[in-house]
């Protein structure tokens, strides 16, 4: 279950705060307007506030102002344009199609432009029913802009007041997702779970975790000017360091299961991971409550059990039983778990007070860690070509809206065309999988919302109660729109239908008409989801190349760090972030492809394995870094650096070969590591050598899976 759907955490999440802010702003703007004007004027002002509110998301203040200002300007322009065209039916139809196409082209600016696209299409559909004179159109647009500006001022003021609170909430969400990530890793120790399926689940969650960590970076690392901000920065950095330690715990789970299947130590390892997840959740829980966090979980019984098992395995080895490898793996896991427990303690400590220094970013440029906001018109122009997925999506939406309008004109009852159009623009998304999910949520949510509204009107038709339900649905709509759209669809259906009931209580066919219009819009959107479709497999070659290119840079940065060539780990952190982001994008594309028709699915198993092998390279590097840190005092630096340099050359050659199509058909060779290093009297050698061998072997496997992917995509 998502943490924000748990009542224990829901009311402290930024989703609930967003719902309250959204509802308070809309209701407040409407009530203030009603003091000076009639209901029609108040509704126009409210719609202006609503369009701006769609852009009200957790974001750095400067970005939020730019995004919401763009919504005010763009939606006001669309309102005026559609209002002026409304008296001329033929011109209105043309403009609706043109505006739909232009709004969808804004998707080139990335995920954050999606709410702006929705706001533009929403106000387009709301304005198409009004038949006004030129003077009335300008007055209507002025009132709309007034509401939009009023909500902009209100939202910026509230966001400034709550700027630290929002940072805490977004950081807590990243911590909750990290705890969920550990829960998945815990099940690797449970033989009831298939290792391959569990690894796929882990990689899928990695995509979500990367998104939450980026949201945390964007808010926290941009500005930290006081002691309260310093605390969230400390917790954020500890969280990222803890994440790397968790990556390093990847081991040979099959070997552990084979040698220790009858031992209770596997359940002990599972319990340790489960406790660690709950410990991290306790930090997140306290962060959302603006409290210092203190450790309350003891790991001592489990750690003692592991020590006892290590002693038992050592005894069996002394008796001549071949369990040396299992002993080494379990001992390595024990050491990593100790490091994780220590880091969780530092996570608690980081939440307690601001310290004088904070690692790794002093006098450093945070730009590479942060999302950049660039809105250049040439980006749209560069996508005005038929092979662009965004251009095809824009054409698809424009054609679907044209058909939706034509169908509405043929219906026997007085259909509201805007409801059909609104259903189309809400359901049709750039990818088939998103459209499929949104269609299901929209239909089910609308049906449930219509049933609830019918029951309210029939049995609870009291103005005060209806207003209370309206306020609740207004809070629920933005709360769940990014959390569970199905719940948002229920809330928005109740909200709009009750509003229409209050304005025109005599329309007994209102609910049935809305249902029919929703089904028509969903049917049109479904048909056009196959028109000029951009299937995910078409983007996979580019994503695979990006992963390889970023991985190559990551390997170069990581080996420089492991050999002590840099003064800090700043460059390594940047490349690690980029690699995890690129893997998350490829993983997300794979998940979306699995929702597409089976005839459009390509190389599913090989893409899975390709993602896994690249992920394993990160895990091996993290493990090497942990080992070298743990043995700093006894480290024979010259011998270690010689071995790392040799491995670096081989891994870089392998990844370069994978990137170069002319070299990919050459069999990658694994040259032996420096022969003289095995004689160095250091207990860490076997672990380092094992990790380097795994690193080289997984790098080689990347070429194999890449070639299989390209063959299937050809």
Automatic annotation (TrEMBL):
What's the domain of life for this entry? Bacteria
Pinpoint the Integral membrane bound transporter domain residues: 406-527
Annotated membrane topology is: Multi-pass membrane protein
Domain called Integral membrane protein YccS N-terminal: residue spans = 72-340
Q: What is its main location?
A: membrane
List where the protein spans the membrane: 12-33, 90-109, 138-162, 393-411, 447-473, 485-503, 515-535
Q: Where in the cell is it found?
A: Membrane
**Swiss-Prot/TrEMBL keywords:** Membrane, Transmembrane, Transmembrane helix
Q: Which GO terms describe its cellular component?
A: membrane
The protein's name in its UniProt record:
FUSC family protein
Q: Which organism is it from?
A: Duganella margarita
